[in-house]
């Protein structure tokens, strides 16, 4: 039963990472230099190129984190499945693989969860830069009302969700 719970949890990590990775690719495919794709009315509120560079960098960082987390989760899942399907007649595989160390599985699940959480933080930072590119910089006095209104739910809800996610991961790590 514990093995199926671990595999289900690892499947969840991989599925969520896949959705976020798709979001990263959509963000990278968007052209921030398209003059018709901006809602900024005052040219003073236009962000400098540094904001656009940060947006791309944060997308890459989040993609790397999600990919790292998914690869760790898939590796653990494969190790669990291989160790549970080896039979006594298959001496080469069972001698090579043996049993999966429960502590190693726990640490691997923790690492996969932390990788996903870090990817979410970088994706949130990339989205903050997207908002600044589309609606104007946060420091702009004349047009920042829409930018701040768009960013406030993002910086409240995402960290709250991450706090819940990390709490559950730590609880599962300490209890499994």
TrEMBL record:
Top-level taxon of origin: Eukaryota
Keyword annotations from UniProtKB, A to Z: Membrane, Transmembrane, Transmembrane helix
Secretion signal, residue range per the UniProt entry: none
Residue ranges crossing the lipid bilayer per the database entry: 12-30, 56-76, 107-128, 148-174
Protein name: Maternal effect embryo arrest 60
Organism: Acer yangbiense
